[in-house]
Amino acid sequence: GAVVSQHPSWVICKSGTSVKIECRSLDFQATTMFWYRQFPKQSLMLMATSNEGSKATYEQGVEKDKFLINHASLTLSTLTVTSAHPEDSSFYICSARGDWTVQDYEQYFGPGTRLTVT
Amino acid sequence: GIQVEQSPPDLILQEGANSTLRCNFSDSVNNLQWFHQNPWGQLINLFYIPSGTKQNGRLSATTVATERYSLLYISSSQTTDSGVYFCAVDNYGQNFVFGPGTRLSALP
Question: In this predicted model, what pLDDT tens digit does every residue of A73-96 receive, in sequence order?
Answer without folding.
Answer: 889 999 999 999 999 999 999 999
